[in-house]
Amino acid sequence: MRVLAMIMAGGASESLSVLTAVRAEPAIPFGGKFRVIDFSLSNCVNSDIYNVALLTQHMPRSLNEHVGVGKPWDLDRSQGGVRLLQPHLGPKQSGWQRGNADAVRRNLDLADEQRADTILILAGDHIYKMDYRPMLRFHQQTQAQVTLAVRRVSPFETYRFGIVSTDPDMRVTGFKEKPRRSRETLASMGIYVFSLPVLKEILADEHANNFGRDVLPRIINGFNVFAYTFEGYWADVGTLQAYWEANMALLAETPALDLYDPDWVIHTRSEEQPPVTIGANAWVGGNLISNGCVIEGIVERSVLSPGVRVAAGAIVRDSVIMNDTTICPHARVERSIVDKEVYINEGAEIGYGVDNVPNRLHPDWLNTGLTAVGKRARIPSGIKIGHNVIINPGVQENYFRTDFVPSGESIE
Amino acid sequence: MRTLAVLMAGGAGTRLTVLSDKRAKPAVPFAGKYRIIDFTLSNCVNSGIYDIAVLTQYRPHSLNAHIGIGKSWDLDRQRGGVHLRQPYQGDNADLDWYRGTADAVYRNLDFIQEKNPDLVLILSGDHIYKMDYRPMIDYHLQKDADLTVGVMEVPLEETDRFGIMTVDDEMRVTEFHEKPKDRDKGTLASMGIYVFNTDLLIQRLSEGTPDRPRIDFGKHVIPDMISQDKVYAYPFEGYWVDVGTIQSYWETNLALTYPETAQVLNLHDPNWVIHTRSEERPPVKLGPQAQVANSLISNGCVIRGQVERSVLSPGVYVSPGAVIRESVIINDTWIGPGAVIDRAIIDESAVVGAGTYIGYGDDLTIANQEMPDKINTGITVVGAGAQIPGGLIIGRNVLIHSGRLESEFPGPEIASGETV
Fold first, then answer.
1. Which of A48, A68, A395, B30 is the most buried (most CB within 10 A)?
2. Do B235 and B336 reside in the same domain of the chain?
């Protein structure tokens, strides 16, 4: 079996608000020093799959820089390796991609070039550790033409997933996209194994643009489709709340996702940074803190990326703080997601108050009390900022009209 | 101007005791995630010197693995790059190991001739400092010198530890005394950093005779050159330490946890990055009960106990209830629940059993019986891979050799100054 993995990394993921305003979702920092894409890429190489294509479209620059020639994953190879595929013009298959299936269709020539016979379709925005080899073996043993990875979800959450029904042999007999109520609880994880001729046949239909919406419901009757059950931690970090929760889950004493497993290393492009420096009066219980951080203040239940500075008297709680952000003396950050290189001036308070007014512009994205601060924003000293506030990337001190931003507001 | 840097990395560093048992001194871990040689190598590339030879002799494997093709320093180059040079046998070379620094360079003259640089910069691979070599090279050219020696002011009471240079008003060196007992030679100490004109270096190293040997730069070559060549001293102002002893290794590591040292040896400076081969490790995980103050903690550590004024390398695990004070803990060491570590250096992959107390007792002065000259300041040293059983009480100045197993420990108490 010659496998080519295609990782979907092109979606705009608007519900991640300020985080995806400046980069593709797979390039978002996660778990301190990692990026979301590191999990799928590391799963590939740890599963001995060294032929990987990343399909990009939305703001790919940060992703291009991160993946580069694939050195951290040992994917800088003369045979196979990692390829970043952009939308392109040309005589055929020209123009922007209209969905993940369309993206695959436009790059199917690569599969022939690499003489692959099996295509593994992955999402670039899932946090999980999975060995793909047992799934590929299952695909072979059942002589499936298509295999979907599925996992059990709570019956209250079926509305977020494509729900699969199977017969006792795990042959898929039904598929419903995001049903409100469902008796079945096997959810598709967006991980598919296709035998190449079958994939070509399916994608020959020009209207098949999206795997979940268009492709799967149509192929269940005509093809041998099987479901492979994955048991393990898996998180889709497609919303701010889910992203925050997945980060916080790493803080548990024995987290469901073990980053310290030497047999399943999550590789990433590491910056060269000195060890974490912890000052005399710092308080740092219950955190994940990356190299290059300098902590003089109080940090609790938070995840800090490399190079974050927390000055004396500053307090950070229940937050995700990304690279090189500076938190000045006596500033307070609570229940917030703060992007890279943000400067929080002295005495500023983010996540102030106890109310929970949903964001007025985007009540569907921000409604759980989290405040999101975009890349390189500068927060004026002494300001109070409530919950569910969006502060857009690059906002300067003078964009703030008053010294109080109530919950639910947006600053742009 | 083409400069070739030659790093001396062959010394055994015996005063570091078990830390340099299995590795050359430049490969000893330092400041958490670094190794001693990273500072000199990074100084080279940050000074725009990309042509580097590293001369090894003693236990080079760890150094070879660390430097590899020089990728971490961008030294994996088509032209130049880093070359690891081992002693070798050949048709006319004498069949002996390097006998000293000058001898090591002499045996690699063919390499220097092949590279044909204008200047040779001789460096020591076991010093901790940040230095731009370019101003020194400019100075060498301005003075039209044959040899320029990097020097720095040291306190008068320490002059007997260094090679002391006496200079005239023009900074031309007039006298050189290796570790003088008298205090009247001035306070300019040689840092072991030399800029040579290549032709003269080759000439001076080649004219050795049995009664005027050319084995060591400090002992033979430089004293000889002062009388006949233009030798200048280049004053360096900044932080510079030779971490040659257990005490200075421990002190220098711990000094990095103080804000004052962190300013002079700033590891966070984006314009002078200290490069190293970083292992792929997750961020530091601090459990809810973790208490950490004045410490340097590297990626991959899991801290569930208490750490004060200490430096931890990647992958150290501190169990709940454990206390670490004023210690240096190297990679992947496991500290058991309730263990106490006070003033110790613990090498990589050691295991400290539950409830064991290392550094027990108030008397720091009982020197180690086996190595009284090396371990005598109250620091207990644990070698790599040692497995210390639980419930032990271990005193000060104790030496535990690498790889000791639980069964090799004599009893529940190891008094100060003992060796296992």
1. B30
2. no
